[in-house]
Design goal:
Order of helices and strands: EHEHEHEHEHHEHEHHH
Structural class: alpha/beta
CATH architecture: 3-Layer(aba) Sandwich
CATH class: Alpha Beta
Oligomer: single chain
Number of domains: 1
Bound molecules: adenosine-5'-diphosphate, magnesium ion
Shape: globular
């Protein structure tokens, strides 16, 4: 049985690949076997994984991490390599997918199989509006409502003095979704992407150390969700999932009215 972590939002450029690849490195550094599923035909996670192979040839402490291209650039359909691969399992599968760019049936499959949802967002009003809409759609989706699972928001590219809008934070509180960490806008992310590394491998610069603290928060949150999920009796809704479910129902009612 694999743990599937879906990193998604309907918005492009909000940091899904950045989050997916850094999370992969974080879990790998905890000794976990991780594979990335790249649902973006642009294949940024796959490119990152290729960059990482080069990095591993230059530095023996860097270990390659597998990324599988899931949809083909030309047809948008599943690639042959993914069709072969998807029945193999790894303990942790991190899925990098833009909800608006994949078919409804693919999105449904991902919602069905995912154990944890991480939603990166930036804090501009455009991004917040799109994320609000996306979260409402996810929490009211029948496949989510029938089996509520942990959802966490990751604020990305935050800049000093420009705080996430109060309205958005109260929206998150109302639907019981935590903001799990805040990643600063920093060139260290660009550098990590270009060199196939994660923040934890970016050395001792002040920016890398600051971001490393944020990533520790993310990994702690993921670890806590896994412990919570293990405590749940199989297929029975716990108190927290019932409360997530009632939040989802509240949203559905709000939407319908
Ligand atoms: N916190 C950050 N600070 C600086 N640049 C970032 C940050 N997060 C992402 N980026 C850069 O922004 C661009 C888009 O990020 P990416 O993760 O590819 O978004 P998505 O996968 O959602 O399209 C990339 O060039 C990436 O390196
Ligand atoms: Mg991407």
């Amino acid at each position: 049985m694999s743990t599937h972590i879906l990193v998604t939002n309907s918005k492009g450029g909000c940091g899904k690949t950045t989050v997916a690849t850094n999370l992969a490195v974080g879990l790998h550094n905890q000794g976990k076997e991780v594979v990335l599923w790249d649902y973006d035909p642009q294949g940024s996670s796959v490119l990152w994984s290729h960059n990482r192979i080069i990095a591993s040839e230059e530095n023996s402490r860097i270990k390659p991490l597998k990324a599988v291209a899931c949809s083909s650039n030309k047809t948008g359909k599943e690639t042959l390599s993914f069709q072969r691969y998807k029945y193999e399992s790894a303990p942790f599968i991190i899925i990098d997918a833009t909800a608006g760019k994949i078919s409804d049936s693919e999105l449904e499959r991902l919602i069905r199989i995912s154990d944890i949802f991480i939603v990166p967002t930036m804090s501009s009003s455009f991004d917040i509006k799109a994320t609000e809409k996306f979260l409402t759609g996810l929490l009211t989706h029948r496949l989510y409502r029938s089996r509520p699972r942990p959802v966490g928001l990751l604020e990305n590219r935050s800049v000093g003095g420009c705080e996430t809008s109060d309205g958005f934070l109260s929206f998150l509180a109302c639907i019981d979704i935590p903001k799990i960490a805040e990643l600063k806008d920093s060139p260290v992310y660009q550098k990590a992407a270009d060199t196939g590394l994660g923040i934890a491998e970016m050395g001792e610069t002040r920016a890398a150390q600051r971001e490393y603290r944020a990533w520790k928060q993310v990994l702690t949150w993921v670890g806590n969700q896994l412990i919570e999920e293990l405590r749940k009796p199989p297929r029975k809704a716990s108190r927290s999932s019932r409360s997530a479910s009632s939040s989802a129902e509240a949203l559905a009612t709000k939407d319908a009215s």
